[in-house]
Amino acid sequence: MSFIGTQQKCKACEKTVYPVELLSADGVPYHKSCFKCSHCKGTLKLGTYSSMEGVLYCKPRFEQLFKERGNLNKNFQSHKIA
Ligand SMILES: [Zn+2]
Ligand SMILES: [Zn+2]
User: Fold this and answer.
1) Which ligand is nearest to the CA of 34?
2) What is the pLDDT of residue 14?
3) For ligand 2, a single-atom ion, which residues have Cβ within 5 Å?
4) What residues make up the domain containing 59?
């Protein structure tokens, strides 16, 4: 088993992620340095992040954004943020 030759691209910046800086969130590769909230730039942990179409948010921000709009529970896979 080897991952050599498998180039993973960071979902956030779309650059190659090397294993030493790889952070895998639900199978989606990110740079550790890219794994932060897009709003407050706070560092995220695997247990405390939320993502919407590849954009990362901290949980409080995410809930604030989407509960207010009533889109948190349904249709949020296809919901687009302008
Ligand atoms: Zn990145
Ligand atoms: Zn945040």
Assistant:
1) 1
2) 93
3) 37, 39-40, 42, 58, 61
4) 8-68
